[in-house]
Amino acid sequence: MAMPAPSQLIDVAVRRKPADVAIRGGRVFNLITGELLTADVALVGNRIAAVGNDYHGKNEIDARGLTLTPGLTDAHCHIESSLVRPYAWEEAVLRRGVVNAVCDPHELANVCGIPAIEYFRQCAARMILHLQVQIPSCVPALPSEQAGAHLPAADIAPYASAGCALAELMNVPGVLGKDPDTLAKAAAFHKHPIDGHAPGVSPDAINALAAIGVTNDHECSSVAEAVTKLRLGWTLFLRLGSVGRDLKALTSLFSPTLCDRLCLCTDDADPLNIVERGHLDAAVRLAIEAGCDPLAVYRAACLTPARHFGWRNRGLIAPGYAADLLLMPDLAECRAERVFCSGQEVTEARLAERPPEPDYSAFLHTVHGREWNAQDFIPPPPGAVIGVRDGQLLTDVLDWEAAQDDLAIGALIERHGHSGQIGRAWVHGFGLRRGALASTVGHDSHNLCVVGASAADMALAANAVRACGGGFAVACEGTVTACLPLPLGGLMSTGSVAEAADALATLRQAARETGTPLSSPFLSLAFLPLPVIPAARLTLSGYTSVSL
Amino acid sequence: MAMPAPSQLIDVAVRRKPADVAIRGGRVFNLITGELLTADVALVGNRIAAVGNDYHGKNEIDARGLTLTPGLTDAHCHIESSLVRPYAWEEAVLRRGVVNAVCDPHELANVCGIPAIEYFRQCAARMILHLQVQIPSCVPALPSEQAGAHLPAADIAPYASAGCALAELMNVPGVLGKDPDTLAKAAAFHKHPIDGHAPGVSPDAINALAAIGVTNDHECSSVAEAVTKLRLGWTLFLRLGSVGRDLKALTSLFSPTLCDRLCLCTDDADPLNIVERGHLDAAVRLAIEAGCDPLAVYRAACLTPARHFGWRNRGLIAPGYAADLLLMPDLAECRAERVFCSGQEVTEARLAERPPEPDYSAFLHTVHGREWNAQDFIPPPPGAVIGVRDGQLLTDVLDWEAAQDDLAIGALIERHGHSGQIGRAWVHGFGLRRGALASTVGHDSHNLCVVGASAADMALAANAVRACGGGFAVACEGTVTACLPLPLGGLMSTGSVAEAADALATLRQAARETGTPLSSPFLSLAFLPLPVIPAARLTLSGYTSVSL
Q: What interface predicted TM-score (ipTM) does this complex get?
């Protein structure tokens, strides 16, 4: 819906004219006072014109028996982790009540560079929900990486002039060491709050990051770490995603005193997570179930992110604010029965009215390289072993002898059309008794990761994802037993979240048959190459130890 | 001090280099967590580079035994009410710990128009404290007024492009009635929060004002009124000035839940008030003395206004924030022993280093008209009488018979060089037994107001203020017994706050000798013509009744 003229809003507020939509008789959760007050909410265009008694509209919604809250905000997410395009992601999360999201398209940007950023910005301009696209700050994650793209300060600085903000600044050593390119990025984007990414760093490093414009962090995993960052002025995004589920340990932070510095985020939510547990709504549920004050939780879910990001008219049911509202039977359950976004109810019909989806053909065919064969996956010589931990990003350095109970071959294939290089290393923890897994999702450079008990199955799985333009595959004893094509950059499918969730469930089942006990074997595989998290990683040069 | 380069801040944060200034060993009041934690604060240029233990500097300040708070913010004020120029006002309020202020120069703008706004903006650019100059929205207050200037939307819209915000939108009937000029002003300034002025208006009117961009109000005088406005999303500026002292009735609002929507302001603080009671520091003291939580009060005094106005780096002692700090022995007393603003201590020497004061000669000689004589002040015929209440802006409509115990002649003289018109009316409540008072401060058009028991003394007082280019005067039985020249626009003196306070004390004493029991006779006189507050006013047409 269009922004209404001020005179239209005045006419409705003073009852000279009916609203476009009047949501009548619900209990409005007031995120300022904490009260639940029965009131009508009058909408004109994409705005709330009035909140009060006896407002009527051309279209009237009976909200008796329901509670109204503002829509939810995901303060930090990578849409690519949902394995679907932004249009399909929106369909799933809008139903969950998410009306604002701040995304960092750094996965697709690592594969495709500036066009990836442009694509997300074009999607944002056409989507129903309010998507703020941050500009990736660290592509590639480290200079040594062979990613599909390299985005130095000069390439992204124009987005600062366009009013964009800088996405999570992961290169903490670069900041502390005054790396010129990193400082140039921070300087270019100094007019906007810079997103941080500072797991467990020292107070000195927090001071340094904050002093150059970093204002928030989504990597806290303990209350002590959170309090240190809050004291130094940061806003914290408490995370409940598929990988990082730190929120559980942080619920004691929710208080009236602190909730104006707390937001919620998913960071990485995979499609099974969205379908089975929910999206940001799951975080609200978890926090309230843990005993947190609903006012503090909903402020964090709605109002605080709006204030943090400088969105003056979002996150509150009040006149002049965006007409984004959820109607739900129960605050603690946070399951929206009806969702209004920009003044219109979110329905199949409304979703179908979106402008045509931006062209994504430029992101197809991003898996380069020849047909691979078993010779490409010959075992490396005995040596140090990467120890994978179930459900964690941290890995261990293991001795050859200590790892004999469970050894698999790991391989990383450069797939962006540069060197075609293949690095190999021994991996412990996958528990593979047969077969192989392959993935073109491989943080953050997204080269092709393969792990297997059999070199022949590794070649089979790698060729399977290559054949479908990227994705996940399981091969077992000479057969490809499951495959999820992710043809957009090797990261995203062309289908819906529900379809991706079904495929992921099938893949996990197929992976079980290789013997792996890991709860999310493809997530463990995808993070195997991430070179900025300790202690051992699989790189294009093979085994590498990492310390920060 | 200049903005430091990010690399300088990093070097200090990670202890590679000493700070410019290290304030060591004080107890830092953390406005996020509410803790008082002993820490060093490292300053580089105009910024805080780090807060933590064992920071050292080229210049070290021993803060042991003292508490550190951020500097205070006056969220809404008219500097002209201090009766001195911005440079002189700054000298007084900086000592009181005020480092940020949002001013509306609508008094001088009513006399001198756009050059008045330019003057305040030039002052702001050269002053030490951070002065945000809002653009007056209602000059004159009503279309019927004969002010010195008239500022329609087209004249002020360029300031919106320059990033300015719109000052208190007093014309509530104009908004509700969709007055095109008023709506054009709101539309031009829609990118920034618009200041409100909505004493006691209906919820429908609040909805209408909020829906077109008004975000705050400083006119609440009861908790019920405040809660109504808070529920509808407004931030409230609780006022403790010379006239409006509403804060006393509103202290129960200070809670952790609400304090992120509460600010403090003075609105109008006269020089005697500043010298004797204090400025914004007096509001902090009053609230804490009333039993309010110091965290809630200091948030309202420091952090909430910064967030409301979108100042990302102000109002907190944290890295990256402006180096504005107060060192005080006691939080409840709020008397700063040392004040740091933009990284430098506020001292006589620092004040002397300010750039030359902007030229104000354009604002001299604003009192126009011939020499007045007793014939100009002949009593009006018997009729309705304006009833003045001590210490209030509201007036009463009194019957002629009921007012016989205390009648004075009131006169308002057009003094901007237009008509020279003189309006006369009977006034009750001044208690004058002899003599006359005259003032070129006469809200909001600032025509020359005179009240007296003797027409001859009225002429004498009026000519006395005319002779000095504007100001206040008392005449008694043929002699001018006291006079405070206010030659800048007839509103501000060329001296200091202390000098103005002394002169005002002398004037009040001289006024006592005319018999008036009013606590602030010149304030009562100055508000006698204000045409937007009920119930009876003195206008250029004589007696006028006012209803809203």
A: 0.95
